[in-house]
Amino acid sequence: MSGSSAVSGTAPCRFAHYFVICGIDTETGLEPDELAALYQWLEADRQGRDPDAAATGENFEQSPLKRTFKSKVLARYPENVDWNPFDQDAVNMLCMPKGLSFRTQADQRDPQFHSFIITKEDGSRTYGFVHTFYEEVTSPQICSAMQTLYQMHNAEHASANPTSSSSSSSSSMDSLVSSLDEADSPTSSSSSASSRAAGGYDSSRDTLYVSKALCLITPMPFMHACRRFLSQLYKAVTAATAPPLPLESYVYNILYEVPLPAPGRSLKFHGMYEPIVCQRPGLGELPLADFPLAEVFSLLGVENLVQVFTCTLLEMQILLYSQDYQQLMTVAEGITTLLFPFQWQHVYVPILPASLLHFLDAPVPYLMGLQSKEGTDRSKLELPQEANLCFVDIDNHYIELPEDFPQFPNKIEVIQELTEVLLSFGLSVSTGAPPRTRSSPNSTPSTPGRERKTTALRQLEDDGRNGNLGGAELAVLELLQGNATLERLQALTKRTGVTVARVDALRAGVKAQSSKGQGNRTAAEEEELKNAKLNVQLREVFASRFTTMFADYEAFVIQSAPDLESWLTNREQMHNFDKASFLSDQPEPYLPFLSHFIETQMFATFIDNKIMSQWEEKEPLLRVFDARIDKARLYNVRAPSLRSSSYQRCSILKESAQAIEQRLIKIDHTAIHPHLLDMKIGQGKYEQGFFPKLQADVLNTGPTNNKWSHRTATTQRRKDRHRQQTEHLNLDNDLKEKYMQEARSLGKNLRQPKLSDLSPAVIAQTNWKFVEGLLKECRMKTKRMLVEKMGREAVELGHGEANITGLEENTLIASLCDLLERIWSHGLQVKQGKSALWSHLLHYQAREEKLEQQQTESPVPHIPERRKSDCSIALPSLRVSLIQDMRHIQSMSEIKTDVGRARAWIRLSLEKKLLSQHFKQLLSRQALTKKLYKRYAFLRCEEEKEQFLFHLLSLNAVDYFCFTSVFTTIMIPYRVVIIPIKKLSNAMTTSNPWVCVSGELGDSGIMQIPKNVLEMTFDCQNLGKLTTAQLGHDNAGLLAKWLVDCVMVRNEITGHTYRFPCGRWLGKGVDDGSLERVLIGELVVPCGEEDSGRGCRTPPLQRSPSQTRRISITSLSGRGSKPTSAQIQEAIGEALNNIVKHFHKPEKERGSLTVLLCGENSLVAALEQFFHHGFKSARLFQKTVFVWDFVEKAVTYMESADQMGDLQETTEPLGMTCQSLCHYVNAINSTPRNIGKDGKFQLLVCLGARDRLLPQWLPLLVECPVVLRMYEDMALLRDRTTVNSLIGVLETLHDFPITLEASLVKGIDL
């Protein structure tokens, strides 16, 4: 049986796949790191210099000991494993992210441990664990090469003009690369050239050391076990005596003879000096996570960690920053393991090699770790985009958060519960520095003075550096107990109320440990057990949050496809989850977070997995999660607490920890001991401090007759066969993969940057993928916004039912703003400010204003402004101006940051339907775009840019009020124009007119209109959508009668114009004698020719096209177009239906009730028609009689009847009703306002609807003998069955709380 097939037989069950050694290749000698050269090439290209010239020159400025040299994979065993091909470039780059580093005997040379992860394109992960140490360089060629480099360096330094060498560049990436130069060197780079030469390398005097890395590559993250194995291996190399067996025996053992523990079992195998134990969670438990979460909490603090976790859930860009690779990895893995049952779907690179820095430019969500250099300040780190960045400075324990993002539900209670779990393990909880949002750009990182009270206490409080190791804690405790000063300090802190909780917790923890050291376990094993139990309990707290939050998610999953193939092909068009219904079922406080979260890729993938689980095996995380939900249902935890946001603590902390403890106490499986191999004796001679060359022939092939490997291999084959049969259901594997890639949009295929062949071509290819991804995301987002919005408007026109909430709309707009920020920060030349978009707009504004100045200096003949066409008579058109919109935003003192300004500007442009047009104008200045952006930037890809603008243009088809509704406190200029009907009345009036405009957020107060001008502007706090305008005059002078067609009001910032139709007289002795009218507004849709520039030609969505303006009913009656009784009854039904629908909408989206009560097709209009039916109103040679006259006569009759005692016999309630009607009518008549007879009728109907009296008043009016005099026989009012059905219909309003706008009921005293 050949080696490779033997290896593949035992394949997926092996504990480790490869053992790798990286270091210096003595054959090729010292090679400068070509990735660093590539980096220079990119930089030169970015700054517009000749890239090739830049890349050729070697970097003599930097001391040779600090330069990066190329490391190589020196050996790997076995050569290859079929199911996990060896990725040489990636492993080399991640084992030594900064290349080789050299030291002399004068420098620190402590060994280091770190881990890394390689994510494949399909999302599967492989883990690497690396032990790096320094080995003496024995090759004379390399020593002399280093010597030569030093001589050249010194010569260069002597000749170089010191100022030229320190020329700084404003580039964003330079500062990054400088902060990433060799960090470990203790010599500071600022020392002068002479001392540098002295502290340099001299082969006659110094011993040269170079870094070497030992690495295990495993399929699962058994971090503790691998760390212990590698450290024992290193100990064997450096020990004075040779290990018991040749090193090959141990490496062979871990590669071929140690299996992966079975799920729910533990495994013991043997290192060189002591046994190593690891355990794997069972199928129903949370998946394996071996990185110590306690360390993550102590590094960041509980609250900070919860905030970073929230940013991760919302798929922001997360950048971790630390000197220590292992800390980067621990925090990244810690945060992602807490996501259960969800999985991070985007770029995930916990350790970003220096050569991949351009990846920080990626316009997609990412979670990356960046190594910081000792002593570099965060402020020097210029990142390409920060609008949506969560920056985590691990070493300084502080975080910077994006500007506005929703808080995690029950955040305070979650923090409380986590704190208690930590305390129960004797860990004090430092909170870390308070998180900083982006709004405070000048806040400095924690200052040493403020932060460190005394070093000893500080280290006790957040013992971040030593990872809470048992030994270190004991030492600290001994120090404390033996040190009188510290004891006194502690007593003092107790008295002053400052707690040194850490110390007490230490005492408790150490006591607990000493009492628990039973079962002859070593301190290290105890520590490991404690870590494992703490890990699982902390994770359970988060898992139980999701179990409560998504307990009913299955009910909202939409299973629409008959089979897997059709689902995969139509994945993009399908709605897989009923978001609106899900949100409407959640407690109010959760909504801001949930509405954002259900839009993320990780949630979409989770739902995809759920849908696919009906055709194939359940994804493991989903299986565990569903099982938990079922269990919770069984105990019926959910039912009573539905929609309640009360906090439920995790109930299974104890049992989850016990499962682990039992596995570690009772070992299930022990692997074969390392043994002598069949190999030539005498090779790989032991030499202390040097890692020997291992015998490849022994290590490249595994055993052929291994009990467990065969057993598991056959079961594995059986499983594979079964899976292939069930999984694909006649669906070709490649096809499926292709669909899946398509289905799971951009995130997946860019999950991991290619760590290999980093030629400029590859980088260009990557950027091209980004551009395509951004365009696709733009298409998806605009489409989603349209579908949701159109859906809602279709509902208002009576089709189907809505499925969007204001909350969801806000979420969609926020994610559009985020996408635009990412597009604008892709391929930036030089970053300025936190918001790339706002920075571009400011550049544009500066240029345009300069041009404007030049134009004003040369006079231009004045061209009179063209009036808008008839649709908005007399309102001069608003100039479409990008700069003007920017100035509006700049004048808003409420917005403090650039990111905020950019978002406000996007909202304003969206509301004005100018977003696409503004962007087109902004990008038409090509010289500016070229100056600001690199060649590969999205904004410089012509075709994609055109498509992008087209997608944004499609948003003009719907109406947004996303600016008006969000910035409710700003001052807004309004313009009012009153349009009289000139043919029939005086255009001018001698009286003094006034107007008062009201909206959803308030009213303007009464404002006098200058006589004979009929136009005015006023500033007023945002009124929201306008609803009513009161118009009146004081009846002074000779020409006091006034026939008004309408009033136009325009918001001068958003350009929304409202028309308030009137069509009636104001004046005593004309029409109904009204001196003031309450007019109901309607939004004017810009007319065709004006709008063609905006490319929006959809029919107006405000009202159905067939409705004509309701002119006074009395004038209708004279024209012979009276509505039939059937039409009237239908109109009443329609009006009431609209009111009922209004109250069934969520509160934030109801719109104006006034329009439904008093506008066209409203309740008042319908009842007016009802009362006019068969009304004897037009008399020859006499005044017109109004419905109000009938009401007044009826009331007069009732009052006189009441006085004469006719009503005494009636039942009590009827008498009361009669009194209420008289009371209301008299109150309306005695109001100081001159609202005319139709206005009074309108008021009576509104008050009757509000106070639920209409159905009681109707019978009174019908019974009244006045009806016989004023109505014909066929009138609806005299038809008992019609009246009774009307009463029944009106009673439906009793279920709703009707509140009337102040403008309607002003001056009524009931």
Explained architecture:
This is DENN domain-containing protein 5B isoform X1. Pfam families: dDENN (PF03455), DENN (PF02141), PLAT (PF01477), RUN (PF02759), uDENN (PF03456). There is one protein chain. By secondary structure, this protein is an alpha+beta fold. Helix content is 45%, strand content 11%. The protein contains 50 helices and 25 strands. Strands 1, 2, 3, 4, 5 and 6 form a six-stranded antiparallel β-sheet that branches. It has a six-stranded mixed β-sheet with strand order 10-11-9-12-13-14, with helices on one face. The relative contact order is 0.06. The N terminus is likely disordered.
List the helices and strands and how they pair.
Blueprint: H1 3-9, E1 18-23, H2 34-47, H3 51-56, E2 72-77, H4 88-95, E3 102-104, E4 112-119, E5 125-136, H5 140-159, H6 162-165, H7 172-180, H8 193-198, E6 208-218, H9 223-238, H10 247-257, E7 266-270, E8 275-279, H11 293-300, H12 302-313, E9 317-322, H13 325-337, E10 347-349, E11 366-371, E12 389-393, E13 398-401, H14 411-424, E14 436-437, H15 448-451, H16 455-461, H17 470-482, H18 484-495, H19 501-516, H20 523-549, H21 564-569, H22 579-584, H23 591-597, H24 601-612, H25 620-634, H26 653-665, E15 669-670, H27 696-699, H28 707-728, H29 733-743, H30 745-749, H31 760-796, H32 806-824, H33 836-857, H34 882-890, H35 898-911, H36 915-924, H37 926-932, H38 942-953, E16 971-980, E17 993-999, E18 1002-1003, E19 1007-1008, E20 1015-1021, E21 1026-1033, E22 1042-1051, E23 1057-1066, E24 1076-1080, E25 1082-1083, H39 1088-1091, H40 1113-1117, H41 1125-1144, H42 1153-1158, H43 1163-1172, H44 1187-1204, H45 1212-1229, H46 1236-1250, H47 1254-1263, H48 1266-1270, H49 1280-1291, H50 1302-1305
Parallel strand pairs: 7-15, 9-11, 9-12, 10-11, 13-14
Antiparallel strand pairs: 1-2, 1-6, 3-6, 4-5, 5-6, 7-8, 12-13, 16-20, 16-22, 17-18, 17-19, 17-21, 21-24, 22-23, 23-25
Helix pairs in contact: 11-12, 14-20, 17-19, 20-26, 23-32, 31-32, 31-38, 32-35, 34-35, 36-38, 41-43, 43-46, 44-45, 44-46, 45-46, 47-49
